[in-house]
């Protein structure tokens, strides 16, 4: 497969390796000046069972940068948009803060930023990615849960993982085409 | 002492650098081909003892983001939540911004901001007074580890005090001593290549240690290593383990001895290795006879057939099986002997110095700055280590014994206390006793970056510059992936603060000790950099922040000429030196006391965001855990009519706290647990002041018999709904 | 559970927007229905025309006020995004509010117009121009009614489409929400007019009330026959929808939905109105016009309309895919 000149960024997560250490969350806050109390990414923890038969799982989650993002569709001003490389973003100057996109997101990936008074979300650290760096959450992760890369680049580690491993996406029935791939 | 000797031998043996760190290590499975981008100024994290390499990116004079530095293989190209949150220490509005002298009563919170000269004059006068009255031994100099700790310690030594008290006896002294007594050194565990890992309580997935945490999660999830975990609490580590056993607290040694019993009985030991390298195996064979799996079942609560199976699997994995030592405060009074049992178990499967086993640490060579030496102190230590704990490190001292003796005023009075980078009120069990010890002091001086609880009760507070605001000595971190790291200044101090060296110099000048400190940090690191295994060492360090070996080396001690740094020159399963010192030469198990009915054993532990008391109040970490609570088993809670969120009163013989309860399935019914770092007394720690409760208030004074290390799990409490 | 993002301001707005749409619709209907070239129910038409602009104006004000950056609301009107119900809705609202205002003007008597224009201070420079505008638009009433119909229906539907178009919330994700909101809007509009006619001084015309009652009974029944299939359809649907319906069928919104909306807001006023209507139905006389009962019924319908929007806004946001 030839390398497609158009990039399509996505992320593969091996959540079995997630140790719920919150490094991704704090790194994101520092990198993106996210205010206290709100988050661009999170770790969904699930605990179950009764002593001594117990289980717990940790699934990091953030914007899925969907192929068919329902948030972008409902935005009345076009402030929510999708870049050619798939990254879904909010153009701050155009956002009126109606929060419709927050409601339209099946993943609760967006939040209202009380400091900027507009809707805020994960950008896959596009400012870093454009410089050739990794998103802050990917880079900082101690157990390297996340693999970030270009789906159209058949040589990428991301591609290799998706070819060799089984995976799932969350809420496929929404038809959004989420681009966070969780390894099984 | 043993360890140091070993390291010198290693140095002389010529463990020259084979290759220096390169991103190649991380090339596997990741895209590393792109040219390095200048992500920031390389420096070294100080939020915990791991010393990870970071790149600090600065925007308009303000530190914007700390990124992991991939050049340090030990830090595995990561920066945890704590490391990321370090920025908030720098820009904390409640930080210490200039020297303070107490204006009201101790702990009253009235402070007079003063100039550095005033602070130095005041402290020097007090120290000189103490010296005149009680001699230099009337002063105590305690600190926790840090790159500039050396200057603090040297000031105490130059002053003439024998009472230099460092942190190991609150931390890893028992582990270090047990492994040193067995191998003559403290090895690392090659979790990156191990196939079978047993861990007891060390909770590596919440209590992060580089590279162990990363290697273990990779080992378990990617390379399918088997991982067995023992812990009274269902931690994140337990949730990731193949098998988790909520072992009865204090009985780890019974489990280990039964494993040794099975392995010997079934002849699964590495005989050739034992014959060639070890001493006392025959005595061990006899010694473990009574420690059957059935015996261990009765002690630990783990079924005998599981113990037998685990022992078999462990031995079958051979040199790729490790019983991980862990590295944390001791838990019980038999901690040293329990660690010895671990060391012996590891020995009999022959995992010493093998890939996937226990590997003696390598070091990166480093130069030393030569300063004017001082005379040895005339007086002996106040903790009388030589008498009480003859095998323990006299240089580091024993914290709890020191406190006992200072409180007694014997063998001599100690009336001044200098504290660097440490918060004894929270770091040492039994806060009430520590407070009493502080009350007895004529003078207390604290060097810190924030108004800790201890600083709150001090007479003078010296604000130290934050690690991002100063340059520190080069530090060598021994290990399988050894590294030498530089912590260099990223921004100029934003307040009127000074690094520890300048503080030491300021005091030294007034104490007539200036000659011992007539150097600058630049001269110091220049001398250190001279012998680094790279050309233009200092320049290299400033540019890269780290020099490291990226490839592990195995088997260097497995040669006929090698002599272990023990009495016999062999690995000592049986230790004569222990016998001489009056301790069991082979680990003997005694059933630990269990909480009487109606009481619970209080256990401690960590969370990845809060490993140290000072971290709970950083906003980004605090919003993850806004308050600590008391974990209590759901059934017990129901019995006591306690529901999650209820306020409960927890009482031990040391003290009482009030804290919210968390009824959970994730803890044994005979234990309760709380996180460290909350319930602070200092109002300057706004987010955690009077929020939750401090474990140090409840913990009773107990120590490991051999090393003197504080034993943190020996407190029984009762819990009542308020 | 998701934290609600849209709260009472949005509930109010959806309610008020629908209310205006309903009032205008009924008023326009009364204008359009003609007997011998004269509007059939001129009093209803007029009071409706006078009331119609205000709820939607207040609602739009609330909507703008709820924005994170309200001063940027103009951006809604420099873009048109056909995919975004809110974009379409903003334009609909703008046009509809304009029509209601013109329509109101058209229904003013000459006296009223003169009084209105007299309030303009004499010094105002553009006063003469405004005075020149003081034209009688009476002749346009019917055309305005015709023009306004689609926009009124559009606004009524839009408040439902705004929610129904969100795929992420299974509670909303059916086109029945749009119909339900439309009929509820028309019903609350009718109820306001009943109320207005009851409290208005002057003679009470049985024919007017008969018309309004007939209309309201039909609308309530339509609502009822949408709610029932909405529930049945949902229960037969995929798990996510069933889980969403559990919010009203045995969850935090059960009481509000069944007692306050279905009971007090729908079936009770229906029963009252049918009771009032009984003589006509049985062919044994004329409609009762019991002031208290009429006011109660109308009040309950309005209350029900509000509760319906409350339940849908909040329960909808609490629903999601697992």
Question: What does this molecule look like?
Answer:
The complex is a heterotrimer of chains A (184), B (722) and C (322). Chain A has helices spanning 23-32, 70-74, 100-104, 126-129, 136-140, 157-164, and strands at 9-13, 41-50, 53-62, 80-82, 88-90, 111-113, 118-120, 146-150, 167-168, 180-183. In chain A, the strands form four sheets. Chain A has a four-stranded mixed β-sheet. In chain A, strands 2-3 form a two-stranded antiparallel sheet. Helix content of chain A is 20%, strand content 26%. In chain A, a hairpin with a 2-residue loop joins strand 2 and strand 3. The model of chain A has no long low-confidence stretch (mean pLDDT 94). Chain A has six helices and ten strands, in the order βαββαββαββααβαββ. Chain A has 184 residues and is α+β, with helices and mostly antiparallel strands. Chain B is of the alpha/beta class and 722 residues long. Helices cover 31% and strands 16% of the residues of chain B. Chain B has a seven-stranded mixed β-sheet. In chain B, helix 6 packs across helix 14 (335-348). The longest helix of chain B has 19 residues, at 116-134. With 322 residues, chain C is mainly α. Chain C is built from twelve helices and two strands. A two-stranded antiparallel sheet of chain C has the order 1-2. The termini of chain C are close together. The model of chain C has no long low-confidence stretch (mean pLDDT 89). At the A-C interface, helix 2 and helix 3 of A face helix 4 of C.
* H and E order of chain A: EHEEHEEHEEHHEHEE
Q: Order of strands across the biggest sheet of chain B?
A: 5-4-17-16-15-6-7
Helix-residue proportion of chain B:
25-40%
Quaternary form: heterotrimer
What sort of overall outline of chain A do the alpha carbons produce when their principal axes are compared? globular
**Main beta sheet of chain A, described?**
4 strands, mixed
Largest sheet data of chain B: 7 strands, mixed
End-to-end Cα distance of chain A: 25 Å
Q: Given the helix and strand composition of chain A, which structural class is it?
A: alpha+beta
Determine the number of helices of chain A (DSSP H or I, runs of at least 4 residues): 6
Going by helix content, strand content and strand pairing, the class of chain B is alpha/beta
Radius of gyration of chain A: 17 Å
Which regions of chain A contain 5 or more consecutive residues with pLDDT less than 50? none
């Amino acid at each position: 497969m030839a390398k497609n000149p158009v990039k399509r960024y996505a992320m593969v997560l091996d959540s079995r390796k997630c140790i719920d250490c919150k490094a991704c969350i704090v790194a994101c806050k520092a990198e993106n000046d996210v205010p206290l109390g709100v988050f661009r990414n999170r770790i969904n923890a699930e605990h179950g069972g009764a002593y001594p038969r117990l289980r717990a799982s940790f699934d990091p989650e953030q914007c899925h940068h969907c192929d068919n993002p329902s948030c972008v569709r409902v935005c009345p001003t076009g402030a929510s948009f999708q870049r050619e490389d798939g990254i879904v973003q909010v153009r701050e100057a155009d956002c009126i803060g109606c929060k419709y996109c927050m409601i339209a997101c099946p993943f609760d990936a967006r939040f209202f930023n009380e400091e900027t008074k507009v809707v805020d979300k994960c950008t896959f650290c596009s400012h870093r990615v454009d410089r050739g760096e990794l998103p802050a959450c990917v880079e900082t992760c101690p157990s390297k849960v996340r693999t970030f890369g270009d789906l159209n680049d058949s040589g990428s580690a991301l591609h290799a993982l998706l070819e060799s491993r089984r995976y799932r996406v969350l809420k496929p029935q929404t038809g959004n085409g989420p681009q966070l791939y969780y390894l099984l | 002492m043993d360890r140091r000797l070993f390291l010198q031998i290693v140095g002389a043996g010529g463990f020259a650098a084979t290759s220096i760190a390169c991103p190649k290590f991380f090339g596997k499975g990741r895209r590393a081909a792109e040219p390095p981008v200048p992500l920031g100024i390389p420096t070294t994290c100080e939020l915990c003892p791991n010393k990870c390499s970071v790149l600090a990116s600065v925007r308009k004079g303000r530190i914007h983001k700390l990124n992991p530095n991939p050049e340090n293989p030990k830090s595995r190209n990561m920066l945890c939540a704590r490391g990321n949150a370090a920025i908030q220490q720098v820009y904390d509005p409640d930080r210490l911004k200039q020297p303070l002298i107490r204006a009201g009563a101790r702990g009253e919170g009235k402070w007079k901001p003063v100039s550095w000269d005033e602070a130095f004059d005041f402290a020097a006068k007090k120290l000189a007074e103490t010296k005149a009255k009680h001699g230099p031994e009337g002063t105590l100099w305690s600190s926790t580890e840090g790159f500039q700790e050396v200057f603090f310690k040297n000031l105490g030594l130059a002053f003439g005090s024998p009472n230099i008290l460092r942190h190991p006896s609150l931390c890893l002294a028992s582990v270090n001593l047990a492994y040193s007594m067995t191998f003559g050194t403290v090895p690392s565990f090659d979790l990156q290549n191990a196939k079978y890992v047993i861990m007891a309580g060390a909770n590596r997935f919440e209590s992060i240690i580089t590279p162990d945490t990363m290697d273990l999660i990779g080992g378990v999830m990617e390379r399918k290593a088997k991982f067995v975990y023992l812990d009274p609490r269902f931690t994140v580590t337990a949730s990731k383990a193949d098998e988790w056993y909520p072992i009865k607290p204090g009985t780890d040694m019974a489990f280990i001895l039964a494993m040794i019993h099975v392995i010997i009985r079934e002849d699964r030991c590495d005989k050739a290795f034992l014959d060639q390298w070890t001493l006392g195996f025959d005595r061990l064979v006899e010694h473990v006879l009574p420690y059957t799996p059935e015996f261990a079942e009765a002690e630990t609560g783990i079924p005998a057939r599981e113990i037998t199976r685990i022992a078999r699997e462990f031995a079958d994995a051979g040199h790729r099986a490790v019983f991980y030592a862990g590295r944390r405060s001791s838990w019980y009074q038999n901690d040293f002997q329990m660690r010895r049992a671990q060391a012996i178990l590891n020995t009999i499967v022959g995992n010493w110095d093998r890939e996937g086993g226990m590997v003696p640490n390598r070091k990166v060579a480093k130069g030393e700055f030569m300063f004017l030496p001082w005379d040895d102190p005339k007086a002996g230590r106040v903790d009388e280590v030589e008498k009480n704990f003859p095998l323990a490190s006299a240089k580091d001292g024993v914290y709890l014994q020191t406190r006992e003796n200072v409180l007694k005023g014997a063998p001599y009075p100690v009336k001044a206390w200098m504290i660097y980078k440490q918060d004894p009120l929270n770091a040492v069990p039994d806060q009430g006793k520590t407070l009493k010890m502080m009350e007895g002091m004529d003078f207390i001086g604290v060097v810190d970056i924030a108004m800790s609880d201890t600083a709150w009760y001090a007479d003078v507070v010296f604000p130290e510059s934050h690690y991002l605001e100063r340059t520190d000595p080069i530090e060598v971190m021994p290990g399988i992936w050894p590294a030498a790291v530089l912590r260099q200044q990223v921004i100029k101090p934003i307040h009127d603060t000074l690094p520890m060296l300048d503080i030491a110099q300021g005091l030294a000048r007034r104490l007539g000790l200036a000659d011992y400190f007539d150097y600058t940090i630049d001269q110091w690191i220049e001398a250190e950099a001279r012998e680094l295994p790279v050309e233009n060492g200092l320049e290299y360090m400033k540019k890269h922040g780290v020099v490291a070996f990226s490839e592990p080396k195995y088997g260097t001690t497995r040669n006929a000429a090698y002599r272990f740094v023990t009495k016999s020159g062999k690995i000592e399963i049986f230790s004569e030196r222990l016998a001489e010192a009056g301790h069991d030469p082979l680990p003997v198990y005694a059933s630990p006391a269990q909480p009487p009915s109606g009481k619970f054993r209080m256990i401690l532990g960590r969370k990845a965001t809060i490993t140290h008391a000072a971290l709970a109040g950083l906003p980004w970490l605090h919003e993850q855990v806004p308050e600590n609570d008391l974990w209590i088993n759901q059934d017990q809670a129901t019995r006591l009519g306690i529901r999650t969120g209820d306020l409960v009163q927890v009482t031990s013989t040391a003290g009482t706290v009030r804290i919210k309860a968390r009824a959970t399935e994730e803890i044994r019914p005979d234990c309760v647990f709380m996180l460290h770092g909350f319930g602070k007394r200092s109002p300057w720690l706004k987010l955690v002041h009077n929020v939750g409760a401090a474990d140090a208030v409840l913990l009773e004074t107990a120590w490991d018999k051999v090393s003197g290390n504080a034993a943190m799990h020996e407190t029984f409490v009762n819990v009542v709904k308020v | 559970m998701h934290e609600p993002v849209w709260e009472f301001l949005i509930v109010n707005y959806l309610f008020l927007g629908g209310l205006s749409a309903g009032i205008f619709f009924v008023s326009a209907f009364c204008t359009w229905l003609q007997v011998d070239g004269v509007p059939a129910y001129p009093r209803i038409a007029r009071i409706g025309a006078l009331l119609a602009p205000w709820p939607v104006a207040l609602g739009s004000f609330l909507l703008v006020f709820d924005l994170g950056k309200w001063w940027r609301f103009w951006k809604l009107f420099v873009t048109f995004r056909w995919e975004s119900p809110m974009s379409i809705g903003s334009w609909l609202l703008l046009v509809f509010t304009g029509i209601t205002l013109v329509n109101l003007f058209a229904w003013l008597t000459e006296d009223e117009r003169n009084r209105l224009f007299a309030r303009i201070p004499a010094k105002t420079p553009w006063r003469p121009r405004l005075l020149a505008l003081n034209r009688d638009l009476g002749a346009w009433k019917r055309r305005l009614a015709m023009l306004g119909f689609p926009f009124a229906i559009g606004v009524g539907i839009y408040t439902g489409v705004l929610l129904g178009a969100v795929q992420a919330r299974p509670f909303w994700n059916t086109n029945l929400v749009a119909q339900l909101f439309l009929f509820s809007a028309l019903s609350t509009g009718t109820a306001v007019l009943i109320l207005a006619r009851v409290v208005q001084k002057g003679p009470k015309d049985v024919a007017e009330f008969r018309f309004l009652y007939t209309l309201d009974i039909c609308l309530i029944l339509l609502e009822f026959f949408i709610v029932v299939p909405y529930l049945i359809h949902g229960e037969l649907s995929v798990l996510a929808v069933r889980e969403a319906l559990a919010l009203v069928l045995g969850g935090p919104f059960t009481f509000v939905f069944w007692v306050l909306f279905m009971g007090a807001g729908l079936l009770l006023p229906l029963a009252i109105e049918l009771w009032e209507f009984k003589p006509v139905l049985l062919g044994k006389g004329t409609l009762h016009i019991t002031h208290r009962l009429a006011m109660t019924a109308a009040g309950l319908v309005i209350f029900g309309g509000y509760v319906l929007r409350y339940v849908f806004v909040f329960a909808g946001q609490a629903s999601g895919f697992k």
